[in-house]
Amino acid sequence: MQKRVIMILMVVAGASLGISLFPLAWRAIDQYSNQWLNNPFTNSLLGALIFFLFSLVLAKHVAAGIKKIEEKLSELSLTYLLFGAVGAIIGLTISVIISMALYNIQIPFINSVVPIILMILCGYLGFRIGTTRIDEWKKIFATKNKKTESSEQVLERKAEDHFRRYKILDTSVIIDGRIYDIAKTGFLEGTILIPNFVLYELQYIADSGDSLKRVRGRRGLDILNALQKEDGISVEMYDGDFEEITEVDSKLIKLAKLLDGVVVTNDYNLNKVSEFQNVPVLNINELANAVKPVVIPGEGMEVLVVKAGTERQQGVAYLDDGTMVVVEDGQHYMNERIKVIVTSALQTAAGRMIFAKPAHSGRGIDNKDKKEAHA
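User: That's the sequence. What structure does it adopt?
Assistant: Structure tokens below.
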């Protein structure tokens, strides 16, 4: 459709130029008096035909150029474009006023070329002034009272309007599902952004032949629908794509840089790559580890030993939040609920790990330590 519109515009432009320029061509070849050739209908038809042939070759390239311009403009904020356009209009208006005096000077270069140069220069300067002084323009046009003035002086910073506003979700965090509960509580500020390429990957997983992948993919789609229907949660779609990049993780990082957004993920590798490229990351697993109850050595708890550990006579239990508890001599209490005393805790990238021993052995140690302290 876009190519057809371009071709039609080129044909109309060719017809108009044909009416204007072909009489000069007929005069050059001594055919000006030939009414069969030199008439508006023939001239416009020939011009339209020539430009139609040009459009067959150029329409594709013109459409590609327009697409690139659209992509560049979509990267710019509405405020930037508005103040840039206003500045350019003011610059062009000033150049027209100055050029009116130059037209009266009967010197070919000054009354013909200089006005054009002046318009280009003033238009560019006006655009630059409009876009580089956005904060100052806002202060001029905004109606303020003393209270807002004092608050703006405190909160004012040199950053774009969408600075870290967008929280870009990847596939893993959508399938995980906890993002819905976090967003519902209001701890995730700004706008949740779902790129189209993430949605396509989620749909591909949901249509997988593997039943486990299919269930996970459908769960992710249900989470997205729940997020979109929830009041108070702002969810937007990003329709763009980066065709030169094949991997979804690389596209996410590219989009985060483009929009100055934050990547929300559960993927450990994506987390590290994003940090290396100075892209802010919110990792749901890190958040879950941070809000887990803190345990200290000597604290008691009751656990169910469910399996043997990797070391000799160790048993493994799990807390309600999934934290692994390694119980010394726990193999003797397999499938039993026992009281243990924490000896140490280890924080790893995968989560928190607690080491403990049965309460009766812990009491013996505590009693021994107390006797030594009294002695």
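Residues 144-159, 362-375 have pLDDT under 50 and may be disordered.
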